[in-house]
Fold these 2 entries.
Entry 1:
Amino acid sequence: MIYSVRGNLILMDAGFAVVECGGVGYRVQTSITTQKQLKLNTETMLYTYMNVREDAMELFGFATKGELSTFKMLIGITGVGPKVALAILSELSSEQIAMCVSSGDSKTLTRASGVGPKLAQRIVLELKDKIKGVDTAGFEISKGSVIADTGNIPKAVSALAVLGYSAADVTPILSKLDPQLSVEEMIAATLKQMA
């Protein structure tokens, strides 16, 4: 419904920010990760998700499309509501969540408030299903050539798929990187180039 808000950041408090757009202040719930990137009294743009319930309408805002995409995937999992998804994104970056899912590390997810061991395992299982289509042994570039299993590139492709990026979009960028970089470094470099 509301794709984004752009305006002057007039207030920041624990868990939310107020962005004034055209004389109206929008209260946008945010993760700590997003809040670290915001500065008071500056023009700010947040990608948003509007959650409409019977008793409330809430607006959630994120500094990047990747964080918004991760939020949407998290709330699509049974037992993960918007508050829990924000808690996870406040504790871990989108890249770290993708790494947890691709490596099967559910324990790290339990660091977030409201996430127990069973819910963390469900998150890893359900998000892994969403990236099953990504071949981790080798993958195709849009031109049709195939990259062999070199270093951490296949793992980075899988992790980026969790964030909603297709292999065709990220492979040309990843193929130019040093295959011996860590998966996190590859993800960060790719997201930086795609921004």
Entry 2:
Amino acid sequence: MSVDWEPDPSDSLKTFGAFVQALREHHGHMREQFAPLVRFSVHTVASIELGRRMADEVFVERADQVLGGTGALLRAAKHVSRQPGLASWFRRWAQLERHAVSLCTYECRLIPGLLQTETYARDLFNNRVPPLSDTELESRLTARTDRQRLLRERPHTTFDFVIEEAVFMRRLGGREATRSLFDHVLAVCELRQVTLQIMPADSEHHAGLAGPIRLLETPDCKRYAYSEGQETGRLIADQKDVAALSMRYARLRSQALSPQDSMGLLERMRGAL
């Protein structure tokens, strides 16, 4: 599957956003009035109307009902297929992330996007082969920053991470960038809804050797998984496959350091830099 990026908001995103705004104003709603009706933040409504953010299915369905129930928004949304800064194969997962009640991530390659600093992400994108253009790089940074707002905008969602110790040993960007990364991760892990466990490098047992794992659960108790590799990604909805990955993740958590011991290890690694 080829990479499909959109450095700038597409015409379809802008047009759909303008359509939402026009319908909202036609019905006499201010954004501050409309946002609670569709159960999204004012910031999210503004981002959609300005063409900076892809409207997911839940928003479209609620907005259509609030704005007359004609089905016009449902039909218009079918023609919006782009999202700035995200790979084509990742968009559906990114949409599901926004409304998940739990998100679980096991990573053995790099710091997960939700925990990255801007410096770390920029260094990551700068290392891409073939190189990105300046516009593409900035677009991906913007998309990553937008996703990271989930950690603070969704206080009732649980975010669980299991990350290999070796990932924190990598000095991407140099020592100062790594110190900043450690400080950032330690600060994020102070949030009540965030839990981080480190898989020690000397562990004799490991249930995740087949690669990274991402899991989520939606408000209606549906469970999904996501698998990503070189230039491709796959959303997994088959419940048998999701259950198998969930079992592996649960075993990984039992094999990793406790959250408290993980924070202690990070602090020691940070002090040794």
